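Q: Second attempt. The first request was missing the SMILES, so the protein and manganese (II) ion are both included now.
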Amino acid sequence: MVLTTAEENYLKAIYHLSDGGTKSVSTNDVAAQIKTKAASVSDMLRKLGEKEVIEYRKYYGVNITEEGKKRALQTIRKHRLWEVFLVDKLQFAWDEVHEVAEELEHIQSPLLIQRLDEFLNYPKFDPHGDPIPDEFGDVRARPRVALIEMDIDQSGQIVAVKDSSAAFLKYLDKVGAYIGARIKVLDKVEFDGSMEILVDQKKTLFMSKDVAANILAIQS
Amino acid sequence: MVLTTAEENYLKAIYHLSDGGTKSVSTNDVAAQIKTKAASVSDMLRKLGEKEVIEYRKYYGVNITEEGKKRALQTIRKHRLWEVFLVDKLQFAWDEVHEVAEELEHIQSPLLIQRLDEFLNYPKFDPHGDPIPDEFGDVRARPRVALIEMDIDQSGQIVAVKDSSAAFLKYLDKVGAYIGARIKVLDKVEFDGSMEILVDQKKTLFMSKDVAANILAIQS
DNA sequence: TTACGGTTTTAGTCTTGACTAAAAATAAAA
DNA sequence: TTTTATTTTTAGTCAAGACTAAAACCGTAA
Ligand SMILES: [Mn+2]
Ligand SMILES: [Mn+2]
Ligand SMILES: [Mn+2]
Ligand SMILES: [Mn+2]
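A: Got both inputs this time. The predicted holo structure:
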């Protein structure tokens, strides 16, 4: 059974909103994520339910099935591999890849993805630090914590961003935060939740709590 | 004005059938090429006419406009660049690329194509020997002649294939004909039009007139 | 000049994936 | 336990792109 581009996009959205299939997802949540109207979502949920990639109980939201999870992870795998390709091979900036990958992820060719993976040397993470599922849909997740959760004097390394919008990524470029940077929390301001971060042992960075909430690190 | 995937496919078909815009094209020809029904084609021709990429006179076939030619060549450029990518970078065989390129050619991103072109080192020909239009739609065509048109004792070099079907390309692989091969016509059989060809000064190849008609060479 | 065969267009239908407006169901408040 | 607010679904519509069947047109032959 084959999914259309629209169905793949819905399923991916449901997967993300459900935190990898752990939570159930409401019609309105999906509508917001996909930027469609709830009425359109209701329709699609019925169809995805019939295809048994989600379990759909009217008025009570949806849960993704095992089959659905597998399908969503395949699409996510393709999306992230293409992002790596665009950045590593075609010198795209990390804030330029998302829309293109959103299209490329729907190209149907198992051989293409297998060869692309090989060509990219089997990358484990995409340019935003998100893990790339293997061909069986297995994801090796790293324990990650938002910068905002870290305490003063704690050290670590930036490994991913929660928000992949161009606006946010460009801001990180501007201030010199990047994936792989070593960081240390110098100060947390009680009043507004903003933070002072030492980057690579040399540069001090001030960031609002909104920024700190969208940078993910591993602690060391 | 933006074209849908379907519209791009129709326009490309019309471009090819019209020999690069020189001949007018009938509804039935398009239907055969796209593998749809004439009724569907009529409908689409009306739409393409409204978008002024073709000139459509009911019952009298269509002619592609300058704007249409430009659009078609952009799609062809993308198709052929992706074919080069698949063969040169992902080790696809030349008979495996067409279907995938047929999808990839519709990805919308000028930056992607510009960077891909650069990454591939500005290739001038695709894996089947067809020229790749530049970003302005200019094609530098080589003078090519079908093998079947060559006379006994004439020499040359295989530069392209007319038929890009997997069946034909696999056959060429099997018998050892390839783009770039040096060839010489040893014999032409009056009776059935079949030919005897010397390849790379060492291997003799017998081919039917159908095969000889689909191999293109430059004479030397 | 008319009849005919082949080509093309029109008319009507279907599916997919959107939308708006209205109805129905659920959840929260009184 | 009603009432109300919010969410969700249904009903009806639309556009794109396909299809079949029927009508219209074109060019040729009688
Ligand atoms: Mn997508
Ligand atoms: Mn990403
Ligand atoms: Mn195509
Ligand atoms: Mn080609």
